[in-house]
Structure formats: C-alpha cells, structure tokens
Amino acid sequence: MSLTGTWHYRRSLASRVTLLTAIAVGVTVTVVSLASYVTVRTQSIRTLDDTLRHRAQVVSQAADLNQSQVSAVLASASDTRLIYIDLAIGKQIFVIGNRDLRAGTVEANVAARHRGYSCRTVSADGQRYRMVAVPGETRGTAIVLSQSLEPTDKMLGRLGLVALFFGLAGVILAGLAGWGVARNGLRPVRRLTEAAENIAQTEKLEPIPVDGNDEIARLATAFNAMLGSLSASRDRQRQLVADAGHELRTPLTSLRTNIELLAQAAGSDRLTAQSRAEMLDDVQAQIAELTTLIGDLVELARDEPVSAEPQSVELSEILDNAVTRVRRRAPGVRFDVEAEPWWVTGDAAALERAVTNLLDNAAKWSPEAGTVTVRLADGTLVVSDEGPGIADSDLPHVFERFYRSTESRSMPGSGLGLSIVRSVAERHGGTATAHRAASGGAELRLVVPGSARPASDDAAAAAQETGAAVSPVS
C-alpha cells in the first residue's frame, strides 16, 4: 500500500467522508465554473465579432468614407478603430484610429479575394483588440474594424473571481455539510464502537439499543446476537468448569485421604493386610473414575464435527464390541441383543463410545440378574433396562452435562456419559432421546442416519435400476 493510501486510512471515517465530500464538490464546482467561463468567453467574443462584422458591412456600403459619415455610423460604438485597405494603391487608410494598430496579411487576403471575412485578436499599444475585416464595395478593398477587448476581459475577470469565490464557499459549505452528515450518520457506529470498547474493558456482554431498520441497525442487531452467543458460550464454559471442579473434587479428596492413610501406616502394623488391600482397591477405583471423568471432559470439550474423511462403519459390529466390553464390567446383568445391519458414515471410535455409554448406563441401573434389552433396527438403537426408570421431571435433563437425578447422586458416575451420547449423535446428524420403558425402566434411543447396505452396494443397486452395466469384481 502506498504512503498516500496509508495516510488516508489512518484518518477517522468522519474526516474521510468530509474530505471526500469537499473534494467531490470542489471538482464539480471547478468543472462547472470552467465550463461557464469558457462558454461566456466564447459567446462574448462571438457576439463582438458579429457586431463588428455588421458595422463593417454598413460602413463598406457608404459611398464616401469621410470621417464624419463613418463617425455617424459608428456613433454607438466605443473605442472602435477603422482601417480602409486599398490594394490598388497598396495603402492602409486610417479613417478612425492611429497607426499603432495595423491590418495584416489576413485582412489583405480578404480584400484580394473580395469575399468572406476574417476575425482575429491582435495587440497594440499594450491592449488587446478584436479585428474583423469584410470586403469593400470595390474589388481589392476591405473595411477593417477593431474594438478593444478591455471591457470583455474585465467582465471575464470579474466572472472568474465570482466563480472562484462561490467555488471556495461551496467547498467550505460542502465540507461543513459532510462533517455534519458524517457526525450525525455515524453516531450509531460510534455508539457501537464505544460498546465494543466497553465490552473489551469490562467484559460485560450487555446488548446495545437498536434504533431504526437501516444497515447500522442491522449491524447492531447482529452485534447483539453475537453478544448473546458469547454470553451463552461463556456461561456454558463457566458451568463446565464449575461442574468439572465439583466432580473432580470428590474422587481427588477420597484418593488423597486413602493415600495419606497408606503413607502413615507404612512400616507399621496398624493396618491389616485386608484393610490395606481394600484401600488399594479404593485407590484403583478412584483413579479409574478420574480417568473416565477426564476422558469424558476431553470428549465434550472437543466440540468438533466429524472428520473431513469419514469412514463407512457397520453399527451392529460396533454394538457387538460394546456389549462384549460392558458384559465384562457387569457380569451380573443379562443382555438381550437383536441387531440388524446398519451402515453409518462417521467416526467409529465416537460411535462406539456413545453406544458403550448407553449400555453402561443401563447396566448401572439394572437390578442384580436383571436384563438389558438392546434392539437395533433401521438406524434406531433402543436400550431398555429393568431399573426404577426416569422420573418425568428428569426426562428433559437426562442428556445435560453433569446432570444427575436425586436417586443417582449416591451412585458412581460423573453425569457426562449421556451428554456424550447426545453430542456424538448430533455430530453425525442424529438424535438421542429418553423415555420410560414398558417394563417401568428407562428406555434410551440413539438414532443415526445411514443405510441398510454399504455405500458401494447402494451404488451398484442404483446402477442396476437405471440399466447401467456393473463391472464384476475380479
């Protein structure tokens, strides 16, 4: 960028509007004034030429060119000079005027041709004259009239001064008007700027008032919408930090207590082997709980879409892997699984995490020797348990982060598992909902869009339907 451009953009918007307005008006006034000056000057000279030519023709028709007769003809003219050219005698006769002003070759040519006329500007005795020549009555003669341009020049000079004065006045008034318009029109922009600066200094995400429905009002409305989104995001962030701190405090406190007891009892017989083993088991369980909680937090904090190169995965295979894993963690619970093939394009690891969380939740709430019913059909995974079910007041909040019902506060868990399920479902274009099962327990549903056949099979079927030939796979 040039230095001029840099200087221009370093100025305030109001000053730029004022400067550009003044320049635009100045250029316009200059062009109009110049055009007016040229037009008036041309018209004045043309009028003077026509007048001089008419008078010269009247003089040429006089039979006798004595000074008294000519003076009578030219009585209405001021500062007019007359020259009679006679080529036969090769002289210029100064009827009116002096010898300082002489005709030239142009006027002699008019006399020689004895037709047409000539007009030109000459200088003599320090003044400018307009000289017009017309043929005389006799061939080889010409009547030359000249008149001083001093009145015309004075009139044009006054016109130029008036144009300059009004032009400067117009530029000044345009600058003042531009400044006023810029100040008044940019008031919403200044208010928006002050609000943004105040937010940057105080971090108070308060909306600004919106007046009218013009572009500035739309900008203010969009700015308020952005503030609302920022405020909601900050509230969610604060809530996440507060909830995470609360959830991490309990296992960390228990873990620190057990480690301190083990450290104090080291080298002494105050703890039996059984008590020491129980404490170590508690420590391992708390470490596992912390690991799970941190993994859940990381999963939720990612908040990123599916990979740019998603994979085609079979949801029933993911379900089989998840059931196998959960069965090992809950050997006292029976799993009744029926699954149909369902192909999904997405993140296999995230989908397996979501399915595992659904099964873990059902196993946690199932009674001893209870049955968890799992059905997968047409992209809908339904997991039902035989537990106490979900209260109607808790149904809308089941998938919220860190939400735990009154009955679940005494049970292990962070309240993040089901929120991860909803997050994964939304990232894959699906949904996650909670209901009451017919058996009285909880029924959780995960719906993920996909197809009953792989993408390659769908392409082959489409080609067959349209009559296209499908090449066999070698």
TrEMBL record:
Name the principal localization, coarsely classed. membrane
Q: Which reaction does it catalyse?
A: ATP + protein L-histidine = ADP + protein N-phospho-L-histidine
What is the protein's name according to its record? histidine kinase
MF term (GO), any:
phosphorelay sensor kinase activity
For the keyword Kinase, the answer is yes
**Which residue range or ranges hold the Histidine kinase domain?**
243-452
**Keyword set, alphabetical order:** Kinase, Membrane, Phosphoprotein, Transferase, Transmembrane, Transmembrane helix, Two-component regulatory system
Q: According to the entry, what is the taxonomic lineage of the organism?
A: Bacteria, Bacillati, Actinomycetota, Actinomycetes, Propionibacteriales
In the record, which residues are listed under signal peptide?
A: none
Q: Which residues form the HAMP domain?
A: 183-235
Q: Where is this region: Disordered?
A: 453-474
**Entry's localization field:** Cell membrane
Give GO cellular component annotations, separated by semicolons.
plasma membrane
Q: What is its EC number?
A: 2.7.13.3
Q: Which Pfam families match?
A: HAMP, HATPase_c, HisKA
